[in-house]
Structures are given as C-alpha cells and as structure tokens.
Amino acid sequence: MSDVPSIELQAVSRWYGEVLGLNEVSVQFGPGVTGLLGPNGAGKSTMLKIICGMLKPDLGTALVCGRKPFNRPRVMRRVGLCPEQDAFYPKASAWRVVAYLTQLHGFTKAEARTRARQALERAGLGEVLDRSVAGFSKGMRQRFKLAQALAHDPDVYVLDEPLNGLDPSGRAQYGAVIEELADEGCCVLVSSHILHEVDALARRIVVLHAGRVLAEGSAREIREDLAHFPLQVRVTTPEPARLASALADVDGVTQLDLTPSGLVVLTSEAALLLDRVAALTAETDIAVDAVVPLDEDLESVFRYLTQ
Amino acid sequence: MSERMPPLRPLAGFGTLFRWGLRLTCRWPRLLAIGLPAIILCALLGEGYVGGKHWDRPNDEWLDLWILFDEGMLGYILPLIALLTIASGLRVEIGRKTFVYHLVRPVSRTTMFLARFASGVLPATVLSTVVLGVTCIASGLDLPASVWLSLPVTSFVTAVAVGAFYYVVTTLFRGGMIIALVYTFVFESLFAGTRGAMQKLSIMFHVRGVHHGLTDEVFKENSDNVVRALDPEIDLGSIDWTNVSAFQKLQERVAYDDPMSAFLICVCIAAGLLVYGAWRISQRDFPLKD
What we know:
The complex is a heterodimer.
Chain A: E1 7-16, E2 19-29, E3 32-37, H1 44-51, E4 59-64, E5 79-82, H2 94-103, H3 109-122, H4 138-150, E6 156-160, H5 168-183, E7 187-192, H6 195-201, E8 204-209, E9 212-217, H7 219-226, E10 231-236, H8 240-247, E11 253-259, E12 262-267, H9 270-283, E13 290-293, H10 298-306
Parallel strand pairs in A: 3-7, 3-8, 5-6, 6-7
Antiparallel strand pairs in A: 1-2, 1-4, 8-9, 10-12, 10-13, 11-12
Helix pairs in contact in A: 2-3, 3-4
Chain B: H1 14-25, H2 28-48, H3 61-86, H4 89-96, H5 99-103, H6 109-139, H7 145-172, H8 176-193, H9 203-222, H10 224-230, H11 245-251, H12 259-283
C-alpha cells in the first residue's frame, strides 16, 4: 500500500453498453494539483467515478493509494470527493449534513461537529452554517460540496467540475483552498472543461477526449505542442476585401475567408499576423475594429490534438 | 501507512446511518401523511365494522374483529404502512443522488443497506402498533393483555418480513414501488385465495401464522363462531345460515405453523431477501448521473 497519496490507472477501459466511456487509459496522479481537462463526454466523470469506487472498470486496474477502490470502503478513509451533481438533503442544514457525513469516518459526534464547522468555514460558508443547503445558491452548493470533502481531512481529493457556478471571488477562494491542499502534500484531481480554469489551478494537466488521454504535462508543454497548429483569427474591419489582399503575403497565412462578421484568417504565425495588422492600421487608412482569436476555446484545442 | 487503512469493524457506521435514516423517515409531515389516514380508517373500521350487520354470517363482535385483523389489517393496512415507511429508504438516497456522499465513506454498502432498512422498520412497527391499537379501542371489546401484547409483535414481524421484500424490490428496481403494490394487491390475494400449499408462498401467510398463534385462543374463548370458523372438520351443511361463504373461505386455509416456526420462517424470508439485496448493492455500479 502506498504511503504517498496517489492514484494510478493501468489500461483502464469502461463501457456503457456499446458506448466507450474510457479507452485503455493509463495515467498516474501524485501529490499536487492535476487538472483533468476534456469536453463533455470525454470520460472525465467516468474516470473520477472509477477512482472513487462508484464504477468498476471493465478492463484494467484502478488503484488509490495502492488499493483497488471499488467496493473497498476502507480506501475511502483517504478520499474526499466533490461530486459534480447537486445532491443535497432539502431540509437539513449544511452543518448537520457535513457533521453526519464526517461521523461516518468514525469520528465521535462532538468531533464530527467541530470538524464540520471548521470545514464549512474553510470553504467560505461560516456565515450560513445553519441554513438549509436547498436555499443555497449554485456557488454556495459548490462550497458545501468542498466542505464535506474537506471535513475528514483526506489526502486524496477528487473534485469534479468544482468551479461551475462560482463567481470570480468564489473561484479565487476555492483556488486558494486547493493550493493549500497541494502545499500540504495532498493529491488533488480537478476536472473541468474550461481550459483557463484548469490552467490557473493545476501544474499538470491531463487532456481527455473520447475516453482517451490525448496529452499530459504542464500547461506550457501542452501549449508549446499546440503552437505548431494554425490559429484562426477574426479581424473586424469595414474593408475586409482590402485588408485580405494586404494580408495575403504575410508568412504563415494559409487561408483568408470573408465572412459577414469580418475577415477570418488562418495562420500558423499569429505574432507575425498581429504585427502586420498593427502596421497596416498605422501606415494606411484601413480601419480595424477588433482582432479576436477564435481558437482559444477548448474545443479547438481538442480539434488540434485529434488531428 | 497501513495504520491509515485498518480493516473496518463489522457494520462500522451502522449506528450513524440508522439515526440519520430514522431522522429522514420520522419527519412529522411524512408520518402524519402515512399515519393519520390509517388511524382514521382503522378507527372507523373498528367502530363500524365490528358489531355491524353482516349478511353472510352471524353477528359476532369477536368474529368481526378476528376477520378485520386477518383480512383488513394483515391483508392491506399493515403491508401498506410497511411499504410507505420502509421501501423508499435507500431508493430516495439513490434517486436524490445523496447516495454519492455515502459511497466515498469508509462504510460498507452492506452496512448502508441494512442500516437504512432498520431505520424504516422501527417507525413502521410503532405506526402499525398504534393503528392496531386504535382498531382494538374503537371495537369496544374488552381485550385481554395477551392480545395487546401481540400487537407490537405482529407489527414487527410484518415490518421485517414484508418490509424486507418491499425494500429490496424498490432499492434494486426502478419500478419497485409498482412491483410492491402489484404484489400486495394481486399476488398476496391470489395466494390467500388459492387452495392448498400454494398459500404458503405468501409472505403474509407466515405473518398471519404468528398473529393467529398469539391471539386465536382468546378469540376462541370468546366466540363459538371463531371456533367453528377455525374447525376444518365441521360440517358446514349442518349450520343453518343462508350463506356461509366467509366460513368456507376460512376453512379452505392451510393450517398455520406454530407461532415460533412462523416467526422463524418470517425471519428467514427477511434474512434471505436482505442478503440478496446487500449482495446486489455491493456488486453494483453507481454512475448517479444528472
């Protein structure tokens, strides 16, 4: 059994009937924050549910701290899960629910209550301990889910889409807690389908798509890999045809499309393109209203990675 | 590090889960919604049916109460109370997806399954005892202590035996509530109305065995009609009533086992169902998707 908090998947596959949820995924997670990135249906939640022992892999092995998690409740002493779904007891207060769930870890009632209070305070719900979770906003529910994962002080955290519904200050506060956990040596796995969210939280990112790991490494490493791929840029101008002819000879430009919303340029050298556009606006009378990269969303990243 | 994952104690967390389940089951609005209609109905039956005019048999308050217990209470009211208080225990957690919080705790699925069953059995027993008690009071009969003492036993055995069936089918199957209702209103009646040993396929047959074993002597002492009804040797043709269908129906019944055997059969039925349910739950995946 592993002393260090760790998660390991060895050639794990999982089907839902004829649909493949995970396809021979082999990956390891150790101490620190790892971002699990992928669009909806990529297999993120399936992976997290296998790690938390809710699903059994059809093939391969999942290990949490060196043990298989499915139907092995004692492994769960070391795991804290923030589930994706909004699940709560309509009538019970946040504090009571967290205390109850903490008590299931073998703590006495008094100890569980103290831990529940501390966890809710740490998650930023100190002011609303006694309120029913049913009356919470989406952001407060996310914090509640974090609190119930924190209260028993695990060292493996599985956070499924934890930032959904949080406002900017909530995200910052949540992010700070995640950083603290990483500093304490915990293994924190954060899933998201939003690139910049994961980028801000995790030192390492694992990109999942269609049940497979497409890329893994630091955000910088993944970006560098992507730098070779062409980028789409929309330039909004009242004279798109004139601008198109001016940009046709720029190095790296491979395609120019005139669209109702502006000129869409496909380029492998975005920096050169931006320099040329800036020069044109200064040197000629071509007006440019906006330059917007169209490929910074995650779907484009996945498109590149799957090409 | 192994001390961070010592083996779990058997049934670790049972008490916490049981108390939480009890808390969810015993909400006043829920208890009132189940209990109040049952109490009112039984008070009316106890007061109106016992001693009322019955065209197919002689008027006899003791026989009326005996039949009311046998058919009304054990046939429908007590099973329905068990259904409403026990069946939804874990199904609600799964449906509401709060079960996800339990799956990541150091508590075995078997413990969760059993604890939530137990947390339904207690209120079902109390509620059923109250309902039976109200019926007895409303009947106006001077019942001896042995009958009063049999009420919680009958209620408990009903909750455990038929409650286990309801609990397992509703937890394991999406349409479990419908299966349970069909079982109560169709199959139980079918088994009860069948001649011969088929009657023993009914769970409530064995519950009735416990109930009758504990109470029949008192009813026999107070009513010759109960004696006749329970005597399979009596020649119905010698009785001068225009219609003896109720007696014929009673006499077609297979003799009940002695109360201890019936009790053990009920416990075995419940244990078998719960072991099967716990095994299925422990092997099952829980994607718990939105």
